[in-house]
Write a structure and sequence with these properties.
Nucleotidyltransferase, domain 5; alpha/beta
Length: about 375
């Protein structure tokens, strides 16, 4: 390694950043530089001080709640900056002392040794779209919780709906006819109903915003192409694209499967090889969306009218990959179920193979600019 490189470890917090510096020589000890404010001016001044002799600066910090602002500021100044995965940082089991100073020194030392795993950093437009998709997912959970509160309140008072399905028009009419003897309970009922309606309005509004902004997104062609697959409608497709990004950045579908934690864990030693449950590392939102879509492969292979309309205008190689995936995965679902596998294991295996076909579709798509 050349000594004309400095490796800078940053322990980033809301108001401050602890800085440690390690020179390019492996035998040189790292040193603690000090603490600066978490502002653009302070970062610019730091980079000017450390690069006075024309040395190359390589910054790194842990991914966390402070986002990618520090990365974008440093790269705009012309410096290298890696955002590293906190879960993959090597740590000594016996260490029981954690301070900002120690964390910065550790990052600088490990960055110089090449022991850190950088994460993929989206651009500002992609991050904005991902925030919108995540907000919609939060609103869906809010709707579910509001409905559960209302159902729990009614169950405590013996009001049980006997219809075929809840939250239909008939169910809402039944809710409007409910009456309690005490005025306080009637107020509580109406408040719970209003909370459900407000959560649904927020969810539907965010979904409309996604549909309106999607054509202006660089990954809109990928979202449209993924919807050719069975079990991948707009919500699943836009979630996968927002959380993973351009699928062409993965050289092999196995890398994508491992990235989303859909590969089995392993604990092997000597001549014994033992596989366990999936690792569940990486992005949980994309993994959950894929597993939800995998349930649709329990039905026979066929192209529905809704999916046929989504496939209009797509290239023939993309349609061929989607149909090949449907034929294979529907047959594999039946075969695994017939062998006695539990349904959750079957669905997980189907979701893992869905990723391989999604990767193949992603190789056919080039994002727009």
């Amino acid at each position: 390694m050349s000594k004309s490189i400095k490796y800078i470890g940053l322990d980033v917090h809301k108001k401050s950043i602890s800085v440690a510096v390690a020179s390019g020589g492996l035998r040189d000890a790292e040193r603690y530089f000090g603490q600066i404010d978490n502002t653009a001016g302070a970062l610019r001044k730091l980079s000017e001080q450390l690069s006075r002799d024309g040395v190359r600066l390589c910054f790194c910090y842990e991914a966390g709640p402070c986002g990618y602002g520090v990365h974008r500021q440093l790269t705009a100044l012309g410096h290298d900056c890696d955002v590293v995965a906190p879960s993959l940082i090597p740590r000594k089991p016996g260490e029981r002392v954690k301070t900002d100073r120690r964390d910065a020194l550790m990052l600088a030392r490990l960055h110089r040794a090449g022991e850190l795993s950088p994460v993929w950093v989206p651009d500002a437009d992609h991050e904005a779209m991902r925030d919108l998709v995540r907000a919609r997912a939060v609103s869906v959970r809010d709707v579910r919780r509001a409905r559960q509160r209302l159902s729990g309140f009614l169950l405590r008072h013996g009001r049980v709906y006997c219809g075929a399905k809840a939250w239909t028009l008939a169910h809402r009419r039944w809710l409007s006819r409910l009456a309690f003897a005490h005025p306080a309970q009637q107020i509580v009922l109406q408040d719970y109903i209003n909370a459900v309606e407000a959560a649904e309005v927020r969810r539907d509004g965010l979904m409309r915003q996604i549909e309106a902004l999607l054509p202006h997104w660089s990954l809109a062609p990928l979202v449209a192409a993924l919807q050719a697959m069975r079990g991948v409608a707009l919500v699943v497709a836009v979630t996968l694209a927002a959380e993973v990004g351009d699928l062409r950045r993965f050289e092999h579908p196995g890398h994508l499967m491992a990235y989303l934690g859909l590969v089995p864990s392993e604990h092997s030693s000597g001549g014994r090889r033992r596989l366990g449950a999936i690792t569940k590392t990486g992005n949980a939102a994309a993994r959950r969306a894929l597993i939800e879509g995998a349930w649709s492969y329990q039905l026979p292979a066929r192209i529905s009218r809704a999916r046929l309309s989504r496939m209009e205008g797509l290239a023939k190689p993309i349609r061929d990959i989607a149909w090949k995936a449907e034929v294979r995965l529907c047959a594999r679902y039946r075969r695994l179920c017939a062998s006695g596998k539990p349904s959750n294991l079957v669905v997980t295996a189907i979701a893992r193979e869905m990723l391989a076909f999604a990767w193949a579709i992603g190789q056919q798509i080039e994002p727009t600019r």
